[in-house]
UniProtKB/TrEMBL annotation:
Molecular function GO labels: catalytic activity
Coiled-coil features, chain-numbered ranges: none
Domain of life (superkingdom): Eukaryota
Positions of the Fumarate lyase N-terminal domain: 90-249
InterPro entries for the chain: Fumarase/histidase_N, Fumarate_lyase_N, L-Aspartase-like, PurB_bact
Official protein name in the record: Fumarate lyase N-terminal domain-containing protein
Length: 254
């Protein structure tokens, strides 16, 4: 890791009462490393300007290149665990990463695909909709494969389509049409992928599936492990007396 840091601090107070490291190539050499004293007077006006440049390689935090910032300029940081806006995607990523396949935007897009495909399959089973005849086993297998084989590359393809449509759900519909346009049977009913649906019809089911699958696949198994661990501790330490307390204070008989 290489890091260059420079800082310049100015105040309208004459006496130095700052605690800071010696800046690198700092233009104002009047400030040196010093400690706050108990007699220091509070500053009434302080201005600080800093410039930082970092380059990190082979780190679990990812790579941050050519980062420069100051009080007058905005940041331009590559995404990493250090630059994520949310602690869940940064500091605590290792704790919650198992939820990513379900609760991320990738998960949302995947479940949107599932809902759209399931809707088309259901329409094909309704006799009152002759425009969508019942699919053959081969066609059904192809459609289910779009769900089971959905990948990050597929999600990226949806995002590229969204750049044109400016609509996230419509991008999923176009993605499915592109994937099925070469299929002899499904290509005849492409316009029925989203037939009679609004975006909310797709989204509310996708969000519900995200939560359901995350609970069943990740959260409940972890809770079961936690309950088992607490139960074992309670059983193993049942013979150990515990000192009684009232409002955090020792409970003593008078």
């Amino acid at each position: 890791m290489e890091m260059k840091l420079g800082a310049c601090l100015k105040s309208n107070f004459n006496q130095t009462s700052l605690f800071l490291c010696q800046p690198i190539n700092c233009q104002n050499t009047g400030y040196r490393r010093s400690c706050l004293s108990s007699t220091s007077t509070a500053h009434t006006s302080v201005r600080c300007r800093a410039t930082a440049e970092m380059h990190i390689k082979n780190s679990s935090f990812g790579t941050v290149e050519k980062v420069k910032t100051s009080a007058d300029n905005s940041f331009d940081l590559a995404l990493s665990s250090l630059t994520a806006l949310c602690p869940l995607d940064g500091r605590y990523r290792d704790k919650v990463k198992d939820l990513a396949p379900f609760m991320s935007e990738y998960g949302l897009i995947r479940f949107r695909v599932l809902v759209e495909v399931k809707w088309l399959l259901k329409l094909s089973e309704v006799p009152e909709i002759p425009e969508v005849p019942n699919f053959s086993p081969r066609a059904k297998s192809f459609l289910h494969g779009l769900i089971d084989g959905f990948s990050l590359d597929d999600a990226m393809e949806v995002k590229e389509i969204e750049k044109v449509t400016n609509h996230d759900v419509k991008a999923v519909e176009y993605f499915l049409k592109q994937r099925c346009q070469s299929h002899e049977e499904i290509s005849k009913v492409l316009e029925f992928f989203h037939f009679a649906c609004t975006s909310e019809d797709i989204n509310n089911l996708a969000h519900a599936l995200m939560l359901k699958e995350a609970i069943n696949s990740v959260i409940l198994p972890v809770m079961d492990e936690l309950i088992t661990a607490i139960t074992n501790i309670a059983t193993q330490t049942a013979h150990v007396p515990m000192l009684s307390r009232t409002h955090g204070q020792l409970h003593q008989q008078r």
